[in-house]
């Protein structure tokens, strides 16, 4: 989860500093979270590149403030799990929730469509 906290903080700080992009080390879960953000239209794009033996992710941030805040929900000391019924009840809240489920890393809307629950990674609004 530490890697995801790093991802969230760097994206949040990049947006607040009005940067056009941010770069950080590669991991599969980071890539999956970024794919959900891209599919939701909250980031422009992201690319993977290699520099020596290390892989990195470069995120192109939106030019207009589409993300106002991003917050980690599950933490190493406190995991937060939800089932699909609770997701349906909180469906109308602003922003999106990103979950890790048995079917991969997906948004709460996709989890409702696939009828699965899971661990809530973060909220973005």
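Sequence proposed for the structure above (125 residues):
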């Amino acid at each position: 989860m530490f890697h995801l906290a790093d991802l969230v903080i760097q994206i949040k700080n990049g947006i607040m500093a009005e940067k056009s992009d941010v770069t950080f080390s590669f991991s599969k879960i980071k890539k999956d979270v970024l794919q959900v953000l891209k599919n939701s239209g909250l980031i422009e794009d992201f690319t993977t590149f290699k520099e020596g033996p290390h892989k990195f992710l470069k995120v192109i941030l939106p030019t207009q403030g589409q993300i106002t805040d991003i917050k980690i929900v599950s933490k190493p000391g406190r995991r937060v799990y939800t089932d699909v019924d609770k997701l349906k009840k909180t469906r109308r809240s602003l922003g999106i929730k990103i979950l890790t489920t048995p079917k991969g890393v997906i948004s709460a809307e996709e989890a409702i469509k696939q009828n699965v629950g899971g661990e809530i990674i973060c909220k973005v609004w």
